[in-house]
Amino acid sequence: MPLIGDKEYFKGIGHIPFEGKDSDNPLAYKYYDPARRVAGKPMKEHFKFAVAYWHSFCGTGADPFGPGTLQHPWDAAGDPLEAARNKADAAFEFITKLGFEYFCFHDFDLVQEAPTLKASEKRIQDTLPYLKAKMEASGVKLLWGTANCFSHPRYMNGASTNPDFRVLARAGAQIKGALDATIALGGENYVFWGGREGYMSLLNTKIDKELDHMGRFLGMARDYARSKEFTGTFFIEPKPMEPMKHQYDYDAATVIGFLRHYGLQDDFKLNLEVNHATLAGHSMQHEMEIAAAHGMLGSIDANRGDYQNGWDTDQFPNNLNEVTLMMLTLLEAGGLQGGGINFDAKLRRNSTDPEDLFLAHIGGADTFARALLIAERILTESNYSELRQKRYESFESGNGKAFEMGKLSLTDLYDIAVAQGELPLYSGKQEMLENLINRYI
């Protein structure tokens, strides 16, 4: 039942239980058992599953070829603040019925943007007390907040990278407001997604100036939040393109280089998205491995793309092989640093029943849970780790160890190569490892 107010939007659906893999109840978890301990801690702590306010409660199914197919009852109120409260009722009813403990939002997911900056700021501030009450009553927490500095026409040429300083200043004001809201709600992290931070044409773009502006802007946002005693982590979410032809946060490696160049690496980590990884020509495991190698594996947006479409479809995750490889990396990296797993995924345009939103999240959670269990078995029961380690055993002693310790020169390498003569070939055993993974799946 609703925690505040008298509305119930998902009637006939109660708390989603864990019933195990033999259950044929579509409204029950088959693998996601929040309390089950995996690799030393409860499953829910590995994931920190979060519901995305924007897709789940704001998305209507609209696409470039037609209007939305979903008409949300919580949007019916004519007054924006009443509509915001109704949306919060629906959101917290849904999250608590799922049994999740987190949500996340863009600023104007919470309440409709007003015609002016000050009026928009007031609307958000007026909405916060109701959200705080919902959070206190339910125990649901805020994984992270962010600002939508990409949808409004004013941001058609970017936000922090806009060639017009007036637009940059407006973005700064909006992000200040989103940071204030995140802090007020006890948000654990804050995310930057530079949807328009890039270019459509190099003919009218000065990349060096725009990158400098973005680096300075992020530093200012960090400094402001720290001055307000925000201790959480800031995340950058990589994406190579769409809506821009090229976005400056192209992929994990690009973002890490950017953060280090502008001295932001101590406060920022990465929020990686599966569909963004594939758009960049990578696997999600690749992006996670790159982030983990630099100590920046912060958080995950869980979804998938359509393998026959070259754009960001944001479908709910159901590829067990893909997610198992992700969970191998997650466990070997020691987990996420600060963040969790946010279902940045939306229903298909022709999925119009209220029940469908539950089915989608249940399936996504079960996919991650099943993959985590498989990954743990691979690491504890098989020789997977041993096979990987064996490829590098020549660096564990002798000259290989001396190289890793920085004790050899290029001339030393030359002398070693001459002395050792021609070398045999050693197999990478790729097919053996692929078969091993499939066997455990």
From TrEMBL:
* Cofactor binding: number and manner: Binds 2 magnesium ions per subunit.
Name the catalytic site residues.
Answer: 106, 109
EC assignment: the record states 5.3.1.5
Residue positions annotated to bind Mg(2+) 1 are 237, 273, 301, 344
Entry's NCBIfam families? PRK05474.1, xylose_isom_A
Q: Where does Mg(2+) 2 bind?
A: 273, 276, 312, 314
**Location (main, coarse):** cytoplasm
Which GO terms fall under molecular function for this chain's record? xylose isomerase activity
**Superkingdom, natural source:** Bacteria
Assembly, per entry: Homotetramer.
Q: Which family does it belong to?
A: Belongs to the xylose isomerase family.
Which source organism?
Robiginitalea aurantiaca
Q: Keywords, A to Z? A: Carbohydrate metabolism, Cytoplasm, Isomerase, Magnesium, Metal-binding, Xylose metabolism
What reaction does this catalyse? alpha-D-xylose = alpha-D-xylulofuranose
Q: Give the UniProt subcellular location, in the record's own words.
A: Cytoplasm
Cofactor(s) recorded for this entry are: Mg(2+)
Stated name of the protein = Xylose isomerase
